[in-house]
Amino acid sequence: MTTDTEEPTDTGEPTLTVDELAGRAGVTVRTVRFYSARGLLPPPVIGPRRVGHYSQEHLARLALIEELQRRGMTLAAIERHLTQLPPGLSAHELAIHRAVVASWAPEATEAVTREELERRAGRPLGDADVERLAAMGVVELTGASVRLDPGLLRLGVELLDVPLAQETILAARTVLLDHSRAAAHELSALLREAVGGRESVAAVKSLSAHMQPLVVQALLTSFQRSLKEELREWLKET
Rounded to the nearest 5 degrees, what angle is found at the Cα of 237, between the Cα atoms of 231 and 238? Predict the structure, then answer.
């Protein structure tokens, strides 16, 4: 069912007007139009009465742009970054990419109450839901309050409805963390080698900042391709 202000596309997916898109993303209509003019957002679908309608992919892309800006990237750098993304990414895939980008800031967590956590999640959260979010690293339980990683919340809430046991989530998280640390160790060694005789904290940080968009895109793309290949091989064997 759609609301009075949301009309389905040919695929039945609800769409948003520019005012609704801006309100959901927490930006102004002027910002949405500015990003569209810069090519950071794809054009809307033009409906009856020449009204533009935006999808969940537009909303997810806006969230990614805002996240990249918070990480200190200029609009020109963001534009280059977005052009390197694979075409046709879904809102879910863009949310994954944003979660990876958000992980660039190591101290991004904040203390919130359970009520505030539910408000940001946009849905009621039972004890089992909060435990699953903790297993995914989205929150950390600290007594009366909860430490939240805002960049991971949207993706974590989506994964709450995936039929996986908590033990499987914990095991998957361990696998991903172990391999991520191994990759980070190798990349760190390459960065230190790249600065050569100028090896200093400032030089390594500067090079790391320039490398981050490339590294994130390479990791995300290669992981998606590898996972699809693994699933394809598994389906052949069954």
Answer: 90
